[in-house]
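Appendix B. Chain record.
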Amino acid sequence: MLGYQTFLAGPAMFRLTVFALVVLVAPAAAYIDVGGDRVTFPEVLLEFPHVGVLQVDKLDADRGAVKFATAETLQGKLPETIKHVLQVDGKLPKELREIKPGDRVVYFAGSVDHRSIVLTAAGWYITTTKDTGAEGWERYTGMRPDLETTFAGSPGDLAKAIADLRAGKAVVVRVRPKGAKPDVRVFLRWDMLAPHHRWPAADPTRAAATPRTAKEWAADLKSPDPGVRQQAAVALGELGPTAAADAGKALLASVEDDVPDVRSAACEAIATVRPADAGPVLVKAIRDGDRFVCASAARALAATGEKAAVPKLTQALKDRDWAHDFRPFRGAAAASAILRLAPESPEAKTAVDFLRDRLLNDERSDSYGTRAAGADALAQGGPAAKSAEKALAKRLTDADPHTRVAAAAALFRVNPDDRNPPAAKVLSEAMTAPDPLVRLRAVRAVPDRGPSRDGFLPQLRKLKDDPSPEVRAAAATARERIEQTVP
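Structure tokens predicted for this chain:
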């Protein structure tokens, strides 16, 4: 019926076992190899360059053969037809037995290790795109419930979130922490311009934090539901220093919660609530087993001005294990905190060297945003990162446009008195790029000071007609900032 006879020529071809995740040390690795709880959804989008909405066109449930038609392309380019054989021991997997013609899924393809992932109404599954036969049938290798730690919702909701992310918007999504019940509601904020951050977020359906008292929110930190505990920490962060007296101790205790998303939310809240004796608690948290908690703790230490933590932050630059540091963003957060807390210190030089050598100079073809992240972090260091200037200049010709723009932005920050025509050219060209994310990054990279800043005004004025509302808004902000100080 669907032309899959060649693929199903022998029973051995389709007696597939459920996929078992194996982490291998290799010079290049996929984000999803380390498990969904250790990655962000924007990192998934970086790993899979081709993403779209597929519709079930034809289905042979007895053999688990599904022919999809591409209904909408969200990123990259997809063929008109995609075919999957979804089988475990010759049968349709029990999780996917409700699939039917007309159903829509979100499909991710193009990873360097020949895999695709799919979100259906029943959850995430994975296929292999290697050795698909003459007719190109991808083979099912298993469900991936761990990816619910990056997104838990319907394919329609995911398609909208991806479209918004690709347009430059930050999105708030629901996720399900590892091991949590399906109805747990933990919320995160994703942003493609900060793709390696797992930001705790408020439930978009709840009211502001202020109608409830800090004491009431603190009581929620003891709820058996991790979603309730996470939302309590987020709300206390919104209340800020006024919550310190009634909720400070409970918030510090939550840094040792069983669920990483609660621990991370507690660290982020401490940055604004600033309870007494937070320093030792946050220093301990930068050694947490979850890299996102480490990063949140490092940001909180920087926000609270804990200069005494700099030696411990320097220790966090060292790799812990491959699964934790295969992409060294835990160390990047520590390095950024060092540069903020002690920009003139010997530790700052160590931090700059780390950002340059481990991130900016990551030459792997699948660095997945690592070089751009290194340039972004160096930019935050300002003149303290001047020793990385030569390495940043090299990245002005990087194959990745985001890396080029991030390097140009960093050069204007580390040496604000330099006109740097090559960096200015990179930003100018990026403002006309077809990708709205590149244009948005370039507009936001216009320097706040220095001799090159005013030269961007003509282009910023032209962007008032840009098709992207995010680009238009960012350009208007940049224009106003410059025009207010131009003689």
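Further analysis of this model is presented in Appendix C.
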